Structures are given as structure tokens and as C-alpha cells.
Amino acid sequence: MICRQITDLKKNRTPLVSVEIARPVSGEKDVLIRVTACGVCHTELDEIEGRTPPPSFPVIPGHQVVGRVVETSALDQRFRLGDRVGVAWIHSACGHCQHCLAGEENLCAEFKATGRDVDGGYAQFIKVPEAFAHPIPDVFTDAEAAPLLCAGAIGLRSLRLTGLRDGQNLGLTGFGASGHLVLKTVRSQYPNVKVFVFARSAQERAFARQLGAVWAGDSVDESPEKLHSIIDTTPAWKPVVAALENLAPVGRLVINAIRKEDNDKSELLKIDYSKHLWMEKEIKSVANVTRRDVGEFLELAAAMSFRPEVQEYALEEANRALIDLKERRIRGAKVLRID
Ligand SMILES: [Zn+2]
Ligand SMILES: [Zn+2]
What is the C-alpha separation between 72 and 62, in angstroms, rounded? Predict the structure, then answer.
């Protein structure tokens, strides 16, 4: 499935088209993977609608890719034919800049994103530098593993950036693929953290309570207790302002979104310094992921043996999956099945 141009999903419900193209030719550092599952991420909406536009078209989206190695790299011999591997948002980074050397390859100026800067996994085949492919733990099915690669990995990075300590209160604003994986992670890693979930739909709120949230309200509600940190995964600004009000002193709001939409930007004018920022409150963004984030999350998820909740679609139904995501018909994570 390819994206040919930037488009408005409110007017165009079929942004991707199905085409036959040649199998990618892998370079000597690459592995070629036959794809079996690819997660559907909110970032795909940002790419298609032009908030983080692909540098060239057409492009195959998708950055939570699981499949089998069908051509190994000539240089490295990390993987064998038939090995099950995953590809995440980080497709490559330069490896020698100050950020790469410091283990912050997510900040590299040469960072290339799978499914935006190079072709991704809404396809039968994908190529990736071998060093950027991840072994998938056996406990997961292909579809279960897919959302761990982005929603899970970036969720873990967001959680780390909050600086959360056991016994504190954590808020989650928005409760999609990443939010539900963060909640599962917190439940197993921080037994005494109370999680408060802010979500627009009653279905998402019920799902959050079922997974162990102590409270679930609307995205702009006041929480019953002040929160030490909050992770925001919404595309909007109104929940950001509401979240700042719910923060405790020195509380930190971590925004896990590659771009925000402009629709309700005027809400920012409602920021009241004394209510929303005073008392040393902080706002921080999360940029991309490192290979370490992905690898650690896969290990953690396998050790906790938790199963992400997935909703499967056939590859040909990618447009419907994207529209469902846009309209927030969410329970867990959406995954394309590729035969
Ligand atoms: Zn993603
Ligand atoms: Zn670099």
C-alpha cells in the first residue's frame, strides 16, 4: 500500500492505494524481510496529513513491522534465513555524531524513520540495515509483537522521561495503543503507582479501569488527586492545558506525539501561569526511539509475558484501519495482517 501525496483524511477516506511493485533490492548491510504483520500508528496519520511529511513520494508507510528474514546481510551474520525479526521507527542513524556516540541516536540529525524517510511495512517485503533489525521473543505472535515495536518502545521511553518513582501518581492523557502498554508496564514495574486515565470515549475509559487504572475520566476532567507526572498521547492542545492543571508541584508533563494538530491551538491562550506552570511544573517532549528502547521493551514485555490487545485488519483494509484510528475507534492496538 503506497501513499502518493499529502491529503486531508476528513475529505479523502482512501489515502493509500494498492500497487504491485518490485521486491526491494537489499544492500550488503541489509536484511530483506518478508512481512507478516505491521502495526498501525497515529504517526501514519501525521505523515499522510503532512504534519511530518515524507521527504519524497510515493512511500510505503508502517514502522511496527514483523516478519521473517529471506535474505541475510553479506557483511554481518547476526540473523539466519527464517529468523523472526522486527523493524521499528528507527530505520537508521549516522553512528558517529555526538548524539549517536552518546547513545542518543533518536536525536541524530541523520535519523531516518521507517515508513516516512524510507519504505515501511504496509507491504510484503521490507529491507533494513541488519544492525537496526530486532529479534522478536518467542512468546508473542507476529500480531502481538508489532505494537510493541513503536507503541510499547516509545511508551517505555516516555515513562522513563517522566522520572516516575514508585508510590507516585501517574496520569495518562489519551488511551490508545501506547497508553494501554504503559499502563501494563506500570502495573508490573511500579506496584504502588496509582494510574489516572483521561480519555474521551467511554469505551477507552472502561478498558483503562479493566487494566488497573484507579480512576478514568474525560480528557479535560480534574483528577481526584494531583499527579506527579502525566504522559500525553493525544493529537490536541486542550488536554495539555488540562493536564498542566492536574500536575502536582514539580510535576512533569511528557508529550508523546511526533506532531500536534492545529485545530484547537487557541486553547493554549487559556494557560494561566499561576494555575498551569507555577510551582516548577515542566513540559517535555519525546523524540523518536533508540534501538535500546526497542530491545529493552521487547525483553521487558516478554519477561512480564503480557499480551498487547490487538485488533487485526487485512493489509488491503489499511485505509479503514487508519480512518478508525483517526476517529478514535480504539481498543488496544491496530495491526495489519500480511499473507
Ligand atoms: Zn509509531
Ligand atoms: Zn548520528
Answer: 21
